[in-house]
Design the sequence.
């Protein structure tokens, strides 16, 4: 099972939870923190068991640190997932409650460093793999906690795999240490399709870039090639000429996902909000498919591709 984690940076999410596209100055809310849901189901290649992270949001002007992060996890919730025929209760597990062996396995599963983790990371998960998510099916989420009810629904779309992938020399001056990744796809005509991608390098954690989602509004029914940026070189300490490119000799794993429209809307608005920062930026309302809270409940149809960076 591949190691990865989708966790939203809660501090970033909180900064935008009351914002909107027009000019807006946030004011303190008297209603207290809201529930933040981040849950996923996968069908296709090497699916991870359905899991969900349940936390409380932070006040816009409040403190944020390890203690606040630990205290944000919501415990003892009744979390149920139903496909209309089978209903499964997700079990809560917390990192610090596990023995060292299981802790290492959990850390590897979620792309965490067990030795340096200071947060008592908690997750609700289908430990027994009772639910086997399938493409084309809808999955309802019902959470009962402290007298409150949180609901959502997501559909796992049919997969739209890539036709092929290849590495090519980047444009500009000759450089035999860098490569750009070109992917080819045949988008089904007549359907609204939405995509998201992750990349892992040399067996590391799967990561997303600044813009990890796309819709087929402008290429419905077309077959074409496109460049896919490397999240590893979209941020951090890299040279300008390395931005978005891959290093020759590395081995990358691409996780290519087909998602539904509600999930696209969530990630599209969240990523726009994260990139649209600064003294002259406007606020963006992050769209959510959670009723009774914030966040996302997402179904993914997954294809994996592993290849060496070479041309």
Sequence:
């Amino acid at each position: 099972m591949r190691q990865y984690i989708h966790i939203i940076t809660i501090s970033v999410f909180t900064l935008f939870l009351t914002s909107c596209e027009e000019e807006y100055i946030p004011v303190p809310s008297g209603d207290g923190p809201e529930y933040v849901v981040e849950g996923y189901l996968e069908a296709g290649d090497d699916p991870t068991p359905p899991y969900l992270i349940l936390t409380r949001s932070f006040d816009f002007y409040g403190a944020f640190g390890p203690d606040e992060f630990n205290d944000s996890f919501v415990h003892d919730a009744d979390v149920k997932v139903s496909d209309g025929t089978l209903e499964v209760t997700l079990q809560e597990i917390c990192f610090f409650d596990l023995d060292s062996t299981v802790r290492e396995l959990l850390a590897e599963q979620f792309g965490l460093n067990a030795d340096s983790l200071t947060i008592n990371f908690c997750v609700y998960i289908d430990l027994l793999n009772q639910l086997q998510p399938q493409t084309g099916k809808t999955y309802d989420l019902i959470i009962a906690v402290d007298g409150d009810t949180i609901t959502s629904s997501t559909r796992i779309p049919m997969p739209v795999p890539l036709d092929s992938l290849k590495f090519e020399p980047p444009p500009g001056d000759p450089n035999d240490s860098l490569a750009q990744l070109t992917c080819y796809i045949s988008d089904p005509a007549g359907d609204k399709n939405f995509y998201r991608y992750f990349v892992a390098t040399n067996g590391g954690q799967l990561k997303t870039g600044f813009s990890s989602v796309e819709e087929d509004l402008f290429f419905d029914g077309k077959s074409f090639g496109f460049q896919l940026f490397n999240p590893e070189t979209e941020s951090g300490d890299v040279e300008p000429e390395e931005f978005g490119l891959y290093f020759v000799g590395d081995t990358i794993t691409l996780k290519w996902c087909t998602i539904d429209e509600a999930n696209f809307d969530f990630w599209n608005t969240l990523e726009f909000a994260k990139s649209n920062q600064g003294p002259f930026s406007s606020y963006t309302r992050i769209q959510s498919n959670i009723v009774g809270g914030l966040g996302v409940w997402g179904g993914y149809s997954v294809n994996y591709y592993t290849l060496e960076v070479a041309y």
Summary: Residues 94 and 122 are 4 Å apart (CA to CA). Helices lie at 10-15, 66-72, 100-109, 261-275.
